[in-house]
Amino acid sequence: MAIGVTVKNGDLNGAVRRWKQKVAKNGVPSECKKREGYDKPGVKRRNAKKEGIKNARKRNKKERRD
């Protein structure tokens, strides 16, 4: 899973920014977080609840814009 970007007009900062966005869209950071190690059941529940709240807020924000 190699992700690459081309540097345009010598703009390295822009290329790094685009690369980070591509990596984030591919889900690499969240996958690394999942594989970090063992979580207690209570911690798993808490994190799942936080994720659900975050996703619901995103959905509501998107629906308000439309």
Would you mind describing this structure in some detail?
This protein is mostly helical and 66 residues long. It has 2 domains: 1-35; 38-66. Helix content is 71%, strand content 0%. It has helices at residues 12-26, 28-34, 41-65. The model has no long low-confidence stretch (mean pLDDT 88).
Quickly give the structural class.
Answer: mainly alpha
Unreliable spans are none
Helix content: over 70%
Number of helices: 3
State Rg: 17 Å
Number of separate strands: 0
Assess the beta-strand content as a share of residues.
under 5%
Q: How many discrete domains?
A: 2
- If you average the pLDDT, what whole number results? 88
What is the string of helix and strand elements?
Answer: HHH
Main beta-sheet annotation:
none
Terminal Cα span: 34 Å
Overall, the morphology is flat
Structure described in brief:
The chain is mainly alpha-helical.
Question: Which SSEs are present, and which pair or pack?
Answer:
Elements: H1 12-26, H2 28-34, H3 41-65
